[in-house]
Amino acid sequence: xxxxxxxxxxxLHIKIVSSxxxxxxxxxxxxxxxxxHPLTTxxxxxxxxxxxxxxxxxxxxxGYFSRGGQYYVQIKKQPILSINSSDSETITKVIDVRWPMxxxxxxxxxxxxxxxNPVTSILTFPEVECxxxxxxxxxxxxxxxxxxxxxGHSLLNxxxxxxxxxxxxxxxxxxxSEQVRGLPGxxxxxxxxxxxxxxxxxxxxxxxxxxxxxxxxxxxxVKVDWSDQFVFNVHAHSIFPCETHNxxxxxxxxxxxxxxxxxxxxxxxxxxxxxxxxxxxxxxLEYIAEQKDNDLTE
Length: 298
Known about the structure:
Elements: E1 4-6, E2 12-17, E3 24-32, E4 35-44, E5 55-60, E6 69-76, E7 90-98, E8 103-107, E9 110-112, E10 119-124, E11 143-152, E12 173-181, E13 186-191, E14 200-208, E15 218-225, E16 231-234, E17 251-254, E18 265-273, E19 283-292
Parallel strand pairs: 1-7, 9-15
Antiparallel strand pairs: 2-5, 3-4, 3-6, 6-7, 8-10, 10-13, 11-12, 11-14, 14-15, 16-17, 18-19
């Protein structure tokens, strides 16, 4: 039997060499905390072609290894006893089941604020080949969160997802989170364009809810620059007071289509000069009016 295995990476194959051809019983168990939980028990009969070699081949279904940890494979000629049994008729082997390593990609990696095309992230566990067996308890399935973080203008604020302490830091802002249960072979996440409204660095992090350092973590990064689709022009550099200007002063405000039409307003301020004797008197801004961006003609 191999000393290690990767969770959900395929069936586990065991070779049993015995001069006896009595029916065998195989039990697979997993260590959870300080307790051992049986996962499956099934009889094994030697194949006719293997009798001359005193060899029996056993296949343990892939789906029983739903998470990393320590597992036990127990072989006995009679009904299974406990793991701590000292019965000489029982053979117990320990197998270390490793976590499959996740891969996280994001497309595109460089973009403008409020992108017109969707930002897509793909989470894969390349080693995963099967699903957990039916009726697998929730406690046997790992739980993760996939999060989108805004890290500001320094990539150092993003981290790499390797520490749970990142969730408590103020160096970044969590913009989006989605739960991931189990070890999906492939899962696609599509992020809304309005999540990328500021220039700077973003990180997409897969982190487990458990603090167990053996559970894998990973991250991908996005660099965002200011969009060149923002245009703001006033079609009048100077006017006389009370002139109608055909109904108002026209303002051109263009913005990415991702932004809602009712989301912005254009405000008009008057710059008032202080009544003091000075070549460069101080000025203040006084609010006059505002207009929604869907009717900017006043």
